[in-house]
Design a protein that fits this description.
Shape: globular
Oligomer: single chain
GO molecular function: hydrolase activity
Keywords: Hydrolase
Number of domains: 1
InterPro entries: RibonucZ/Hydroxyglut_hydro (IPR036866)
Largest sheet: 3 strands, antiparallel
Protein name: Glyoxylase-like metal-dependent hydrolase (Beta-lactamase superfamily II)
Number of strands: 3
Number of helices: 1
Organism: Actinoplanes digitatis
Length: 60
């Protein structure tokens, strides 16, 4: 990976990659979890496939 491709994410943003590599997802679906500091609930963007392990990590 080229250093210019690496981004530091804010602490309230989590990126999880689903284990579903393929032509449309490349290395896997990028699932974004956004949780404001001090908040109980989060917003999940693109939860990915019905994979129990991945969904458990999202629920984390």
């Amino acid at each position: 990976m080229v250093a210019a491709e690496v981004e530091q994410l804010p602490g309230w943003v989590t990126l999880l990659r689903a284990p579903n590599p393929g032509p449309m997802t490349l290395d896997g679906t990028n699932t974004w979890v956004l949780r404001a500091p001090g908040e109980e609930f989060a917003v999940v963007i693109d939860p990915g496939p019905l994979d129990e392990g991945h969904l458990a990590r999202i629920a984390g």
